[in-house]
Amino acid sequence: MARPMKVALLGWISLCAAMFCVTGPARAATRQFTIAQAEVRLDVDDTAFHAGGDPVVAWVKRSAEIVSRYYGRFPTSTLRIQVVPEEGDGVRSGKTWGRDGGFIRVQVGRDVTDVQLHNDWVLVHEMTHLALPEVGEDHAWLSEGLAVYIEGVARVQAGNRTQPDVWSEEIRSMPRGLPQPGDRGLDHTHTWGRTYWGGAMFCLLADVEIRSRTRNQFGLQDAVRAITRASGGLVSEWPIERVLKTGDAAVGVTVLEDLYAQMRDAPVTPDLMALWRKLGVEPDGSTVRLSDDAPLAEVRHSIMQAPLSRS
Is residue 4 part of a domain? Predict the structure, then answer.
């Protein structure tokens, strides 16, 4: 094939790929519904999944309700979700953008089961991204860390996951977020572990400290709700300093700003196991044992309980 024809063909392939990204898979049907006052448009091809499209629709609605419960409302007023079928089973991965009021593309196996959809964390994680303003690549640890941390807590609050399961995962995985040799702080160390679990560690430390200093009157949940209300979420772009200051103002203590000052430019290695023991979380084989006799047991309880009257 002559080079000009190759160029033309590549251009046509690129155009088709771009059209696919914008319009979604062929034969995809659009469903529209309202979740917590948010207008959701879902593009899904019912014929692409062996169990049909209804389980996928139920999964989307359940995930949106979990996130809405955590934030007191859905983070955006509109959302478009594009479900891309792939071979195999399970929920594969997702990507979230703030454009057009909120857009999520998520890959799902054609053989996905109801159990896999019920236990999925991916879509809750992606929807959580909608609640934080765009803070820039240097601060991706905050966006990803919040999504990792909040996913577990939000699903417990909604009855979609158990507390031992969440605490067990933290004990197994959060040490991956600790600084390694050569670490230069969260803003300057962009490894997978530091971005995802280092960010989640920041969130855990902040949540415990806010609740400890306010005698469980407020927590990280109150701070992020305030940030979302003030900013409109991912549709906006804010400097990280404004994000943290807004969250601190909502809870009345400068925990987020102070913790960021400590961890942004330098490696900080907290004793995570000591913290979990104070919270009453003890490893017990492949799971954990929760103790209400621990010094911070009430803090642990409050983390997993949604605020009753605050929005």
Answer: no
